[in-house]
Amino acid sequence: MIGRLMQDRVISGKQAINELYRNGYYGRPKDDSLELTLVEAAYLLYKNKLDIELDDGVLGFEDFFTEAAKRQQYFELKYIVYKDLRERGFYVQSGVTDFRVYPRGGHPGKTPAKSFVYVRSERIPMPLSDLLPSVNAAENVRKQMILAIVDEESDLTYYEVKKVKVKGKTKLINPAQDEIRTTLLEDRVIVWDSESSQYLHGNGFYGKPLDNERLQLSLVESAYLLELGLIDIQKSDSEESMDLNDFSSVASSIEPDFMRKYMAYNDLRNSGLVPKTGFKFGTHFRVYAEMVSVDKIPHSEYLIHSIATDHVFMLPVMSRAIRLANSVRKRMLYAIEDRDGITYVDIGRIKM
Amino acid sequence: MIGRLMQDRVISGKQAINELYRNGYYGRPKDDSLELTLVEAAYLLYKNKLDIELDDGVLGFEDFFTEAAKRQQYFELKYIVYKDLRERGFYVQSGVTDFRVYPRGGHPGKTPAKSFVYVRSERIPMPLSDLLPSVNAAENVRKQMILAIVDEESDLTYYEVKKVKVKGKTKLINPAQDEIRTTLLEDRVIVWDSESSQYLHGNGFYGKPLDNERLQLSLVESAYLLELGLIDIQKSDSEESMDLNDFSSVASSIEPDFMRKYMAYNDLRNSGLVPKTGFKFGTHFRVYAEMVSVDKIPHSEYLIHSIATDHVFMLPVMSRAIRLANSVRKRMLYAIEDRDGITYVDIGRIKM
Fold it and tell me: Which EC class, in a word (chains A, B) (predicted)?
């Protein structure tokens, strides 16, 4: 079979439709010819199923590969992913995204594609503003969205990206009879009274005991309980109580991300979940779905990091976050505040 | 026992030397009195072993704690760490660092301190230029250096920080008869020839096979092999060979950290180690001590990240890196280039 390199396509004749398309779903039939992308052509050349001509000569693998890399950005990356998917037994077509992948046992004309695959180099930062429209586009046509990330040594990792709803079963805390008196010290809030400390800690796992009498609350916990009217917060150097605005402003000066973190915290608590700090995992929160008793702390299901809409993912950092989450059997979720509230995006490693 | 709050100390009388110092090693005897730090005093107050006077009154725990927080920066953090160490059975003294901690079974006057403990809030970024002098100071007097990091919920994590030497057993690769011909495509280098591909991959685990004939080399691998004179690198759009300067300059435009990464790579290879990409772990390298055959890849011992001398550790990020490394039974090392070469700093979580 012979194809001719023309711009960023390789065009083969009618016979190729039978031999390459009908028998392997390579390329796209166009009238009486078969149009192959550069990666398809390179793969067929590697498999000795196609010779490729340019001008008057026939190109060897090295020549064609080098030529293709000049004609298409990220050609090598796409080739690595295409080859991997093919060798795992999938039929792959080019599409609006890098590749459309058919489910096992399916192929063009028989079944719809299952996944949209986007190829990325670990070196190229990925803006959330690029990722989200792709996730939405895939969801709108009910496709699985997959990122195929190629590292500097050409190793491949596949990630599935999807929006998820989170919901827990933890009852919301009821206000105590009186507002609980607390003090904001440097960057944490202390509950002084033993009974109140036990109430807050025992009903929703708020705070951490300083000792057997007193409880320390984090800034987001304090803001949430203040907004619910459960606690009263004084500064250590005045007797005046702070309202949510005062407190948020102090908290934001301690922790620049405070408001963004708090919006996610608030949403999670109101969804019946119990968020606690994810510091040890390098994320804002680890999140429990149900907390019946602090004496029997369950496995936390999510690690959640709250990110701004202009966030740019550095892929090695994202890779580490997901790898760590998965290694402790948790899902890694990113929380994004938008007009409709908080959107949670789940990014998880998958085996193809 | 009664103490008097004076500035940032609590001073108690002669009797306290017997009751608190000789019997628990609290404070420091000075002439006929005992001088206690604010955290020591707060702890003794909590244990009902001390009453604290200010002006004409006696301070309750809440009053003293609030007052101390005003008088000393990071008082709460230090208190949390001090209390934790005490309750784990250690004798603790204040020192140039936050705390000097005595070994189990030891105490002031009997044994030298074993560790210097530095207290840090997860929220406060930690410059390498602060960390390194502390590591050196501890090493000079043969103490263990420990970071005690307090997270937003007052949970505590202890890290040991030490300089380490790294050494492997992998033989350096010998030059082949002729320079191996390779091409730099977009951001990776391709070895076209099957025999050369096998030689490089089989002798030191260089590169990754593109297929059963060709090998892909990463930028640092290519620079190293170029410097050794093993390979010749051509650009895809010219026939000219690149020298190390040309190549480094192109590589640095692709990867801004290239030179720093390469210096570490070079040092590791020359120390008999085999560094490969640590992308999946979010670090520059995963490192093998000995690679006898690529058919039997051993467990990699280190994750190594190369950082600049002006690097600032964000503690949640550091915590994640170490947690991930430890979860896959590897040590997390940071490589720093200085006048004498590369210094490796090992930061690992420890249980006190």
Answer: lyase
